[in-house]
Amino acid sequence: MSKTCPINLMPLSLDSIHNAVILAQTDTTIGLLSKDSRIINQKKGANLNKPLLKEIAKLDSIPHRTPTSMRNMIRRAKKTSFILPNGSSFRIIKNNLHNDFLQGFKWLYSSSANPTNGDFSMEFAESVSDIIVLDKRGIFATKSSMILKIGHNRIKKIR
Question: CA 30 → CA 53, 124, 147, distances in Å?
Fold first, then answer.
């Protein structure tokens, strides 16, 4: 029995996807996704160098080494984003639909689909996105993920 992806994508070139901003329902809320963080920041009106969260499809795609004492917690966490001691941040996606979508990319930068320091607006989200991905859940705003800053021996809850 083969596993099929419930998401339909139009065939696009890799260059067009690399420079595209994708509007999609993430595992937590509606988000803007891209391989280039600067494009998301530009469209949201944020500082171009503002660091963004990486959504990761598999554990082996974590961008940097994680503290040994925290690896078990990271592996088991759901809807939780982590900030590493070096400042990079990521969230491992456990939701099947969003994880299936991410498999083709391995990882994407992610940000909420609202203007910087602004409230969510579907009109804004549609206007700044180049590609809109819909799955059977549709698109809706919900609670954001919990954010934990992890050190070698400490955990600090940010949100």
Answer: 14, 12, 17
